[in-house]
Design brief:
The chain is α+β, with helices and mostly antiparallel strands. The protein is 37% helix and 21% strand. The chain has two domains: 12-143, 3-Layer(aba) Sandwich (Glutaredoxin), CATH 3.40.30; 162-222, no CATH class. Helix 1 packs parallel to helix 4.
Length: 223
């Protein structure tokens, strides 16, 4: 099974938008997700939800890639049916992994549930090709797309600001400062908390979101 922190295995496969090569996505974040099958109710709601959220992922320099073990013809027919019924065009590729090669490489098939269908995996891959987060949902429970989007944003913000995100963090909220590494740093952190009331203890204190600060500075520069 793949673990977060590992390099994402290469993908070279056919999709609804032509050939997919994961190396060509270097410099962009990728959300790779699998679904059990085309023309199924839960999967249809997820594809629609991902399609509606695509512009928000794009703003985070993130590309969506779907996958199932159905044929490319089946994918195309399904996406066309969604368009006819809803008017929604799916703006991202769906891999036709007919022989299950990619699904097995990524551990998307749970033999305990099905030896042929993929479960609802999500792999968040950063702009260097490293797996940064993995979600696994059961076949009968649809994914929460806003949570996947939030996780991408949290990872990018934590990277840029060299910090961690607290529970229920959303963009604009304070970040958790890195813990002190020496006793002198600990004492300094305690003093800072006493002065600014920005934490609970030396091991839990907060700082402003540097990305939010950058945006505020940009607004001031324009004025």
């Amino acid at each position: 099974m793949l673990k977060y922190g590992e390099m994402a295995p290469e993908i070279d496969a056919n999709s609804t938008m032509g050939n997919i090569n994961l190396n060509s996505y270097q410099g962009k974040w990728v959300v790779l997700f699998s679904h059990p099958g085309d023309f199924t109710p839960v999967c249809t709601t997820e594809i629609i939800a991902f399609a509606k959220a695509n512009t928000y992922f794009e703003k985070l320099n993130t590309c969506l890639i779907g996958l199932s073990v159905d044929s490319n013809a089946s994918h195309l027919d399904w996406l066309y049916d969604i368009y006819l019924k809803t008017g929604i065009k799916v703006p991202f590729p769906i891999i036709a992994d007919l022989n299950g090669a990619v699904a097995r490489r990524y551990g998307m098939i749970s033999n305990e549930m099905s030896t042929t269908q993929t479960v609802r995996n999500v792999f968040i891959i950063d702009d260097k090709g490293i797996i940064r987060a993995i979600f696994v949902y059961p076949m009968n429970v649809g994914r929460c797309i806003p949570e996947i989007l939030r996780t991408v944003e949290a990872l990018q913000t934590a990277d840029k600001c060299k910090a961690s995100t607290p529970a229920n963090w959303v963009q604009g909220n304070p970040l958790i400062q890195s813990s002190p590494q020496t006793y002198d740093e600990l004492l300094k952190r305690v003093q800072e908390i006493e002065e600014y009331r920005n934490g609970m203890s030396w091991y839990l204190s907060f700082k402003n979101n540097c990305i939010t600060d950058d945006k505020e500075c940009a607004k001031k520069d324009k004025t």
